[in-house]
Amino acid sequence: MLVKKYKTNFGLIVVILLAACSYDSDDPQIRVDIEEYADLVLLDGDIATVDSNYGIVSAMAIKDYEILAVGSDDEVRQLINGETKIIELNGRFVMPGFIEGHGHFMSLGRSKQILDLNEVNNWGEIVTKVAIAVDKAKPGEWIFGRGWHQDKWQSVPSDAVDGVPINETLNKISPENPVILGHASGHAAFWNDAALEIAGVNNETIDPEGGTIVRDSTGKATGLMRETAQRLIRGPRSEYDGRLTPQQIELQNRERVKLAAEESLRHGITSFHDAGASFETIDFFKKLESEGELDVRLYVMVRGESNALMEQALPQYKMVSEGNDFLTVRSIKRQIDGALGAHGAWLLDPYLDLPETDGLVLETVEDISGTAEIAVKHGFQVNTHAIGDRANRETLDLYESIWKKLEVNGKQLRWRIEHAQHIDPEDVPRFGGLGVIASIQAVHGTSDGPWIPSRLGDVRAKATSQPWRDLFNTGAIITNGTDVPVERIDPIASYYSSVTRRMIDGQAFYPEHKMTREEALQTYTINNAYAAFEENYKGTLSPGKYADFIVLSNNLLTIEDSDIPSTTIDMTFVGGELKYQR
Fold this sequence. Notes:
By secondary structure, this protein is of the alpha/beta class. Among the domains are: 1-96 and 539-582, Urease, subunit C, domain 1 (Roll), CATH 2.30.40.10; 115-241, Diaminopimelate Epimerase, Chain A, domain 1 (Roll), CATH 3.10.310.70. The two termini are 32 Å apart.
């Protein structure tokens, strides 16, 4: 069946042009009234529309920035004229473009400008990378890096405190250059003494609320700054960044957007849920969109603004999809706790390996409740970071309380919990029951899996960690992503984690919670579109939707599990335009 869209004054209408079960394309008596021909046609493929009305088809036609038709090769060929470009897929797999359900767009770009510490195996490798950077730097120039994770190293120095080295070796190789190395999670950082001194951290400095200055047995700071303790350097950092002119800052930010977009497109990502941008950054995105300089569609969450300012400004910043849109804003990001790896996730019971704490509360329930009321008033979604089981319970309680207080239908609001990594079994059914979206990143489960039991113990880890199957079974909507740059922006890796839960050691991380291939595909496409109120524009390859799609080397629905990681993105199209080709 060939289905084709056209536009009238009444909006988008899908028209069935051909519905002959025994259709013979060579029958001269068959005639079709073609209103418009395709700009681009794809033939002879395995095209997963992720739409139950169409299923798997072999051909697709594109007109302008939208999908014109899907169907068989013979049917779609009728939309070809002398100006139509044709791509012969030769059996390759096509699907909607991946939608990154939770990432940090500008941080992704910045991660390409600083030291990449994601693949280091030990502390010595970090010291070597920093030493090389110091050799190239001017005296006083700051050295930045990100991506280290002590639980993924092959070994840790014997004098480590809380499982993390002390900064003595960094002090020796960089006595004059402040060094700031962000943890992979973003919830901790490691500083040398030059950075500590600039931030005013000494033996008498009190831990800030929601943060920890990690110290050795003598009371000296080791260099590890957990959660909000990282903010102690904000003032000096602002002064340091102030050395740049406004023009230099804009050039730097434009480069970050370019680098982030290139990395996204290379991995088949056509839309990106940006989990936190200030009004200033959103203004910058607006400028780029007006210039046609956004190559990936952004769904941006407002972050870091006070309730008082949001009360005044949100109406001016609300942007919903219209036309060939590359920037939408209709959500707010809050953060109730930290990360498990940095002992910052808020737990119902203390950590097994650090029993003096049950985590950190980064933003109070009261303040987030104020945000929630403002969001309801202005028609904004609320997306709250919650990793620990206590954090998830508190967030669910908060949402339910606000909806009851304001007498609104919470399911229609599509509020989200970002990460939803550790959930008490009693709270799992509440996601589906309340209509709260579980915005997970499957790759976190397999990346963190080897060390999660050391934080929680095996019994608690098994009961609470990434319970996807239970969430599905109780009616929850699950979305997917990578939390880049916390993890690599690789949806193929996260898809593999979704359907296998296979860790780097070859073991499966509580495999009873694996997703099916179809479920995993939906979490990365139509579910992410729904979670952004954009299911009418993207997420499936249906006539009338954005022509955002990718061509892959393997069929993700049928290949062996072991072949998924080697799957490559051959082409990425956004709005019908080829944006990346391998």
